[in-house]
Design brief:
The complex is a heterodimer of chains A (about 270) and B (about 280). Chain A is built from ten helices and no strands. With about 270 residues, chain A is mainly α. In chain A, helix 9 packs antiparallel against helix 10. The two termini of chain A are about 40 Å apart. By secondary structure, chain B is of the alpha/beta class. Chain B folds into two domains: about 170 residues, P-loop containing nucleotide triphosphate hydrolases (Rossmann fold, 3-Layer(aba) Sandwich); about 70 residues, no CATH class. Chain B has seven helices and ten strands. Chain B is about 30% helix and about 20% strand. Classes of the chains: A mainly alpha (about 270), B alpha/beta (about 280). The interface between A and B is medium-sized, with 28 and 40 residues. Magnesium ion binds next to helix 1 of chain B.
Chain lengths: ~270, ~280
């Protein structure tokens, strides 16, 4: 049988999926053990038990000077920025995507502009943002918006254009106005795509969030990682990185479920 | 094929009797895409209540002609009149349409697909009715679904319907605004033969009941003759061997089938003798 036709069974599937994770863990444990055997005070690769212990402290022990648990304050600060940035980007994407996709006049006005903007590397704009908007929250959120919105707008405009012309004509023969076609025909049909665009945009959004937090912040996951970097505190950095990954995973999962539950018509096998 | 009918190029003689004014009048219509001439010198009068079938080779411009009747596209030259006035330059509720595919809204349930036309008309901002008005509309929609045999699928998404059910829904939806003409572009082209026969029956019933004017493009000769009271053939009368795109297609045959024969054929449910 050709390899392209060999499909692993359920047990093999689980085993293969877990393999890279397990191997990474084993490699880390081996490396950590070897380094600690040579120098018990080594900080670069703490033992997994040390990491777990430290992680437990991080999430439960209040900071001595500030009086609260930094870990949760950092998480909250970062998620707040991420949510605001991505929500604004999504709202812009929906509004401009629909307008560009449906109205030839708006398309003429904006489509080249949006394409041009989306080519600017957002990190190159970061200094401008910090100079213009200051070092506060606004510039961090703005960086996330500028970094993610143009691509999302293009994506949604494209999806709007792809709505079969037959449907748009049909709606007109049923007496729909431009506004009604936008709100009741196009909008609901691009919503699943918006969720997908947000899922894709979250990767870059985290990147810009952490980049912005390293420049200046009082709290935040990215801020903490860069702060403790000075003391080579891998026992803080590693739990934070794992936590960011977990958060990204959870958000993605939640969005996927929302899309499945709310837009059943877009799932081929679903019924009302 | 010419045994029963005579090719005609006659203009309507109804000028003296305003009561018999054609629903649609086409005069000297031409359509080109770039340098490609697709249609030329098309003249046509569609009388009220007719069931017009259109056949012709693939790519000869049948769909293009239908899109111009819809005003989804505009003619390069010539005129199209609806009830004696130039047709609006965009699609509207006076001309209903059913396409071969994508004819219903995938994000609305079967019932919502039937309700939406009324909602567009009654609620300019939200396109939705609420409370008592909504309940009344729902009841009307359910009565329609009962009639077209889709009552049991009222809450399903269109993707869960068979091809025949989808087209029945599309036709019911297109009739919601009581258009002057119903335009159909190969509406049964993607259906299996059995389903197609029952769809023919369905469409004929609706046509007889409502007395509406139907304009249907088909690639199936027997379907065209079974259903139509009049069959138009689009073809290129002139051909330049050095430049195949120089001339366009026009109406080369216009078969007016009389009603009695029409009904006889309708009951036989297969093609007329000239097709065999
Ligand atoms: N938007 C367009 N731009 C350029 N050429 C077009 C366009 N639409 C149609 N054509 C051309 O016009 C010709 C007629 O197309 P049309 O779709 O009307 O044919 P048809 O008779 O409906 O064919 P079929 O039976 O295959 O549906 C074709 O050669 C097609 O390539
Ligand atoms: Mg066609």
């Amino acid at each position: 049988m050709r390899w392209i036709n060999r499909k692993p069974g359920r047990p093999l599937l689980v085993f293969l999926a877990a393999l890279p994770f397990v191997l990474t863990l084993i490699a880390y444990m081996a490396g950590s053990a070897a380094r600690l055997a040579e120098n018990p005070r080594d900080k670069f690769m703490p033992a997994p038990t040390t990491l777990l212990e430290r992680a437990g402290e991080l999430i439960s022990e209040p900071d001595r000077r500030k009086g609260y648990v930094l870990f949760w304050a950092d998480t909250w600060a970062s998620l707040d920025r991420l949510a605001r940035g991505v929500a604004i980007a999504a709202a812009l994407a929906l509004a401009f995507g629909l307008l560009i996709g449906l109205f030839p006049t708006v398309k003429a006005l904006f489509s080249s502009y949006v394409s041009a903007i989306s080519l600017i590397p957002p990190l190159a704009l970061a200094p401008i943002l910090f100079i213009a908007l200051g070092l506060g929250e606004v510039s961090k959120i703005a960086l996330i918006v500028i970094g993610t919105a143009p691509v999302m707008i293009r994506d949604l405009a494209q999806r709007t254009i792809e709505i079969p012309q037959e449907q748009i004509v049909k709606a007109q023969t049923l007496g729909a106005s431009s506004w009604q076609i936008m709100t009741r025909i196009a909008l609901p049909q691009v919503m699943p795509r918006l969720i997908q665009a947000v899922r894709l945009g979250l990767g870059p959004a985290w990147l810009f969030l952490i980049a912005a937090e390293t420049v200046s912040a009082e709290a935040g996951l990215g801020y903490r990682i860069f702060l403790v970097r000075r003391y080579a505190a891998m026992d803080v950095i590693i739990p934070y990185v794992i936590w960011i990954t977990l958060l990204a995973l959870l958000i993605d999962y939640a969005l996927r479920q929302t899309s499945r539950l709310a837009y059943g018509w877009a799932e081929p096998e679903a019924q009302g | 094929m010419n045994a029963h009918a005579t090719p005609t190029a006659t203009l309507s003689t109804s000028v003296l009797t305003p009561a018999a004014q054609p629903v649609i009048t086409v005069r000297n219509l031409t359509k080109s895409y770039g340098g490609n001439r697709i249609l030329e010198r098309v003249n046509l009068d569609i009388e009220e209540g007719a069931f017009i079938s259109v056949v012709g080779a693939s790519g000869c411009g049948k769909s293009t002609f239908l899109r111009m009747l819809l005003a989804q596209e505009l003619p390069t030259s010539g005129q199209i009149m609806l009830d004696g006035a130039p047709i609006p330059h965009e699609p509207g509720p006076d001309r209903g349409v059913v396409f071969q595919r994508y004819s219903v809204f995938p994000h609305l349930t079967v019932r919502q697909n039937v309700m939406i036309a009324t909602e567009f008309g009654a609620s300019p901002i939200w396109s939705r009715l609420f409370g008592k008005a909504k309940r009344k509309l729902r009841e009307e929609a359910d009565a329609t679904l009962e009639r077209i045999g889709l009552a049991h699928m009222a809450n399903a998404w269109p993707s869960a319907l068979s091809g025949g059910m989808q087209q029945r829904l599309a036709i019911a939806q297109a009739l919601a605004k009581r258009p002057r003409v119903l335009l159909l572009d190969e509406p049964f082209g993607a259906l299996d033969p059995g389903t197609r026969v029952s769809m023919h029956q369905f469409l004929l019933e609706l046509w007889r009941e409502t007395g509406m004017t139907v304009f249907m493009v088909s690639h199936d000769l027997s379907e065209a003759f079974t259903l139509g009271t009049r069959v138009l053939v689009f073809d290129k009368p002139r051909w330049d061997p050095h430049d195949p795109t120089a001339y366009g297609a026009t109406i080369t045959y216009d078969f007016k089938l009389d009603d009695k024969k029409q009904e006889a054929i309708g009951e036989l449910s297969f093609g007329p003798p000239e097709h065999q």
